[in-house]
């Protein structure tokens, strides 16, 4: 299909390096700074002209924009500065926050603590994070003679510096020392089958070993992250980091802003500490904290009774089945929603059960995702699980999560395989030492003390999720490849729903309730066979 717009040969030549084609109505922008793309799209929504015509008139042929195909790096910087000034006037003129979603950036954050990654990943919309895996990568390596963990400057300037350093180092030493004994144990109790490729088997042993030991890694563990996000996402991220009290988060905000200023400066300017927008956010947070501190009792510094991992279903809509079916009828008819609801109420229980069962049977695998009708059912859970499992489940986006501060008061979990391997004592000893260090540090540094808490310790968090998102979560997180701890939590979420709404629960037909001692093996075998056949 040809575009309604046409361009002269000279204009086509001007456009060629910035669009993938000049003749068809579907095309992609190329070789343009993010600020230019954002400005283009912001004008696009308020113009009868096509995007390529706007690019020509307002940038390529506009002296004010200063984007006449710069030939040197100095020309490029000048052109970008002019374009940014031009765009800022557009942004100020429209005052539309959604404009901040029209440009983005890929941001790498290296040597950040596991504790910091949770704040970096908290936003659910506009950003896509990816974090170094504790399953496939060893964290035992030392650089410049020391393990890689965040050394908080406030703690290191105090009398607790040695306690902080030694607690972290002993956790890493134990982790490193147990890698080979754990693998030897796994090879003994889970020997390879004759037909299994040895390389696939060893990769599974390696992954399973790291899964069993990851609970020893403290929240101070340094890791790497990559984040792709739009301008609004990064503005929110910088503000959120700056509202935190930990020094690491403040440093990350400054470092990220410095780099993003080179790519999407206009999108993040309201996150600057001197901007009135940021000041307003800071004032609101402080007032909110002061308000609720008058109502909430401060936490005790004494150890509370450790708790087992648990999943409690706090609330659900008893009418959810009717609402889901009504939504299905609604989207496949011309009925008003109220009429669709009444039609569903007129069905017998057997008819509703049959409808849902037959619809579920249409799904051939878990990637067949039902539509938004399932979003009419939602569930609120209160969960106690180890911090490692929280990190995995936290990455799911379309849900509402609230976590409490990381402490050692809810106790810890030791995988049964480590107990069976005769490695319980060194693991338990180092976990108990971490708890003692946490209690000492918490008295003076309640936030910084979180850094010495190993991932084996439990955290309490709430999770509100609709059925559509829950289906994706439990079907993904109960696959054989999943970590045994979060697999159990996902299975429990499914079973809590099954207990109260079994007909809706049957829609989650690819939930796996089995246990797998070497869960990655099947996937590794398939990968190895593909490698051998190529």
Brief overview:
The protein is α+β, with helices and mostly antiparallel strands and 534 residues long. The chain is built from 22 helices and 9 strands.
C-alpha geometry: globular
Distance between the termini: 39 Å
Derived structural class:
alpha+beta
Strand order of the largest sheet: 6-7-9-8
Counted up, domains total 4
Number of strands: 9
CATH architecture label of the largest domain: 2-Layer Sandwich
* Number of helices in the DSSP assignment: 22
CATH class of the largest domain: Alpha Beta
Task: Give the rounded overall mean pLDDT.
Answer: 87
Query: Whole-number radius of gyration?
Result: 27 Å
Largest sheet: 4 strands, antiparallel
- CATH T-level topology of the largest domain: Gyrase A, domain 2
Helix-residue proportion: 40-55%
What would you say this structure looks like, in words?
This protein is of the alpha+beta class and about 525 residues long. It has 4 domains: about 10-100, no CATH class; about 105-135 and about 215-290, 2-Layer Sandwich (Alpha-Beta Plaits); about 160-215 and about 415-455; about 310-410 and about 455-525, Gyrase A, domain 2, CATH 3.30.1360.170. The chain is built from 22 helices and 9 strands. It has helices at about 10-15, 35-45, 50-60, 75-95, 115-120, 155, 160-190, 200-215, 230-240, 245-260, 265-270, 275-295, 320-330, 335-345, 350-360, 385-395, 415-420, 425-445, 465-475, 485-500, 500-505, 520-534; strands at about 105-115, 125-130, 140-145, 145, 220-230, 310-315, 380-385, 400-405, 460-465. It has a 4-stranded antiparallel β-sheet with strand order 6-7-9-8. Strands 1-5-2 form a 3-stranded antiparallel β-sheet. Strands 3-4 form a two-stranded antiparallel ribbon. A hairpin with a 2-residue loop joins strand 3 (about 140-145) and strand 4. The two termini are about 40 Å apart. The mean pLDDT is about 85.
């Amino acid at each position: 299909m040809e575009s309604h717009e046409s361009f002269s040969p000279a204009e086509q030549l001007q456009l060629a390096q910035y669009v993938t084609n000049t003749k068809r109505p579907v095309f992609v922008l190329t070789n343009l700074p993010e600020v230019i793309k954002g400005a283009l799209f912001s004008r696009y929504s308020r113009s009868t002209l096509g995007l390529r015509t706007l690019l020509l008139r307002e940038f390529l042929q506009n002296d004010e924009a200063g984007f006449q195909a710069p030939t040197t790096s100095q020309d490029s910087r000048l052109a970008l500065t002019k374009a940014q000034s031009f765009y800022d006037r557009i942004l100020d003129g429209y005052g539309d926050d959604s404009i901040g979603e029209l440009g983005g950036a890929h941001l790498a954050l290296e040597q950040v603590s596991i504790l910091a990654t949770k704040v970096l990943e908290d936003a659910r919309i506009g950003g896509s994070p990816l974090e170094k895996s504790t399953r496939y990568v060893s964290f035992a390596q030392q650089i410049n003679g020391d393990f890689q963990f965040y050394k908080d400057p406030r703690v290191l300037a105090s009398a607790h510096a040695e306690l902080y350093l030694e607690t972290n180092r002993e956790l890493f030493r134990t982790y490193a020392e147990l890698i080979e004994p754990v693998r030897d144990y796994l090879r003994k109790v889970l020997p390879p089958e004759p037909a299994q490729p040895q390389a696939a088997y060893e990769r599974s042993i390696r992954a399973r070993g790291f899964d069993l030991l990851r609970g020893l890694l403290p929240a101070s563990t340094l890791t790497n992250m990559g984040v792709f996000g739009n301008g609004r996402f990064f503005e929110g991220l910088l503000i959120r980091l700056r509202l935190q009290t930990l020094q690491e988060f403040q440093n990350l905000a400054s470092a990220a802003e410095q780099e993003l200023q080179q790519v999407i400066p206009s999108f993040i300017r309201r996150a600057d500490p001197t901007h009135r927008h940021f000041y307003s956010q800071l004032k609101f947070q402080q007032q909110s904290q002061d308000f609720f501190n008058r109502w909430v009792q401060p936490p005790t510094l004494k150890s509370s009774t450790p708790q087992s991992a648990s999943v409690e279903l706090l609330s659900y809509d008893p009418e959810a089945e009717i609402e889901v079916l009504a939504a299905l009828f609604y989207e496949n008819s011309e009925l008003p929603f109220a009429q669709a609801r009444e039609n569903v109420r007129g069905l017998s229980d057997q008819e509703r059960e049959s409808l849902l069962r037959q619809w579920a049977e249409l799904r051939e695998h878990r990637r067949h995702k039902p539509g938004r009708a399932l979003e009419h059912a939602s569930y609120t859970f209160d969960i106690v699980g180890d911090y490692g499992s929280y990190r995995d489940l936290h990455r799911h986006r379309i849900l509402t999560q609230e976590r409490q501060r990381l402490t050692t008061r809810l106790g810890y979990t030791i995988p049964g395989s480590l107990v069976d391997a005769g490695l319980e004592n060194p693991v338990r000893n180092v976990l108990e030492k971490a708890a003692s260090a946490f209690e000492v540090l918490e008295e003076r540094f309640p936030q910084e003390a979180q850094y010495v808490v190993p991932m084996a310790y439990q955290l309490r968090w709430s999770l509100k999720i609709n059925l559509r998102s829950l289906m994706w979560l439990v079907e993904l997180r109960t696959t054989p490849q999943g970590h045994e701890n979060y697999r159990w939590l996902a299975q429990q979420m499914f079973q809590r729903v099954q207990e109260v709404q079994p007909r809706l629960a049957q829609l989650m037909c690819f939930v796996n309730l089995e246990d797998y001692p070497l869960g990655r093996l099947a996937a590794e075998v398939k990968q190895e066979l593909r490698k051998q056949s190529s």
